[in-house]
Structure formats: C-alpha cells, structure tokens
Amino acid sequence: MFKNFKKIAGAMGLVAAVVGAPVLAQETTTLRFASAFSPMSANNRISVPAFIEAVEKASEGTLKIEHYPGGSLGKSPVQQLSMVENGITDIAEVVTAYTPGRFPELSVFELPFLAESNVEAGLAAYSLYEQGLLSDFDDLMLVGIIMTGPYALSSTDPIADLDDLSGKRLRVAGPIQTQMASLLGATPVGNVPAPQIAENISRGLLDGAMMAPGNLYNFRIADAAKHHMWDLKLGSVAVIFPMRRDTYEKLPPKAKAAFDTYSGEWFTRVLGEGLDTQQEESKAKIRADEEQTVYEWSDEQVAEARALLQPVVDEWDKPNQDGVNLYEEAIKALEAVRAAN
C-alpha cells in the first residue's frame, strides 16, 4: 500500500511539474519584403514600414518581416515578380508594366482621364481583385496595390501645346502608354526602366518621359527634364505587392490573422495616401524651383488631346472574351470608392 502511495504521489508530482512548467515561446516566422526602388520613396520610407509595424504587432510575436529596399535583394525592377515566385523574397514591389502579358486586366487603369488620385485608383483596383475580375492571382495573394499616377509629361523642351510634342522621344511603360504617345504625335521609347530614365535623357537618347509627378525626384527626372505639363491625366500604372499563397497558408494562425487585418484594403489605402502626399510635395517643389517650368493647358487644348486619345479608351470600352467590360467595371469601382470617401 505504501509503495502504491509513493507511485501515485510521484505521478501527481510529475503532472504538477508539467502543468507548472513555463510554456515555450511560439516560433517566429520571418518573411522578406523586397523593393528595387529607393529607400527614400514614399512606399519604402513610410507605407511599407507602417504595414510591417502593424502586422508584426498584431501577430503577437509570431511574425517578423525584414525590409530590403533599394534593390538589396535584387536590383532589377523587372525581376521582382520572379523573385517572389522563386522564393528569393516573400513579398516584393512589382511594376506590372515590366511583365507584359501578366495581370492584363490591371492595364485598364492606364487609360487616360480615368482616376484622379492614387488612393481611389488603388482601392478601385483592389475591388476588382476581390470581385475575381483580375487573372494571374491563382497562386499569388495580393498584399496591397497602388496605381501610381496619374501620369503626366516631362520634357527637356517646352510643352506649351500639342505641336511641342511632335516627334519628341518619350519614355513609355507598356502598350497603352506607347499608343497614347503616338496619338499625341510623340515617338514612344520603351524598355527603359524607371531608374535609367534620367541618364537616358541626359545622354540625349530621350527628350522626356511619361511619369507620375510624384516620382520626378525619386528617379532624378526633374534634374534632366525641366519642362512639365500635368493637365493631361495619362493613366495610372499598377504596382502590386504579391506574396505566394502557399507562403501565406504556412503562417502561424496569429500571423495569418494579422495579414487578414492589414493586407488588402488597409495597406492599399496607406500606400495610396503616401503617394498622393508625395505627388503634391513633388509638384510644390517643382513650382518653387525657378529652373523648372510648369505649363497649364486651356480647356480647349485638353479637349483636343482627349479627342486624340479616345481610340485607346474605345479599345477597352467593350466586353472581353469573358463578357466583362473592364472599363465599365473600373468606372463603377471608382464611383463606389468616391461615394464611400
């Protein structure tokens, strides 16, 4: 009987020891967030760090995100998507214009005179993603999106009217910008990554560029092209922040919940607000610089240019092979965003 008591007491002591033992800390998952662009851009300086801070805090120690701006994981903007798909990084800043044929529906936002700001364009684009109207996302999760723009014109020579654009070699990104430049009388030049625009202008290989005013200093374009015209809203170019779905699925539950809260609409809004602020600051800086000239076109001049660009819109304002008119859907999404804000 005494022996049995000792066994029971020993077993109870073992249980007490296990129950009383401190719970081991949950393992932390580390993700890499890459960007080929400057650490001083609004995205890398403000928006991405805000997202990382929010997600890490909400994950309660189960997630750490390492930020690699400035091309420290891969300098080529063209390679960022493949870096995600090949596991070199987990999330990246991807300019969709550098991957022709991928995410084709997002090109609808490159149409002229559609969106007025980065916030509304980004939220409208994310709405199309949530509705399942964007292809190529079967294996990718859209962490956030920006539609950087609206694009405008910067040149080494005056841009007082349409005649000033005749024959000018303008850097463009993608087929829609190529078509718009041609319709405006300019000569489109593609395959020039944004970080190389200023150098190509300085060497006389380009006369100017279609570029969002907010990026004129990030890419040093304002140092090389000092004539600007912002009255033509020449569309917005998609920049997505994708992550592989299998990477997301492997996250600890609390890390997943953090992503569910702060990816998507929250991150997209933060990105858009950062770029809209950067855009206004860049415009103000250019206007205050005596070496820079900003041209303002009359309503008649804008209407003339808009009529020239209408064929680009007409190509999209019809049902696609799935019976969806993406132009109409984009307008509906933009109107919904404007009504909600």
Which descriptors apply to this entry?
341 residues, alpha/beta, D-Maltodextrin-Binding Protein, domain 2, 2 domains, six-stranded mixed beta sheet, three-stranded parallel beta sheet, 16% strand, DctP_fam, signal
Task: State the CATH architecture of the largest domain.
Answer: 3-Layer(aba) Sandwich
CATH C-level category of the largest domain: Alpha Beta
Percentage of residues in DSSP E strands: 15-25%
What name is given to the CATH topology of the largest domain? D-Maltodextrin-Binding Protein, domain 2
**Class per helix and strand makeup:** alpha/beta
Please write the string of helix (H) and strand (E) elements: HEHEHEEHEEEHEHEHEEHHHEHH
Distance between the termini: 78 Å
What is the radius of gyration computed over CA atoms, rounded to a whole number of angstroms? 25 Å
Low-confidence stretches: 1-24
Q: Categorize the overall geometry.
A: globular
Number of helices: 12
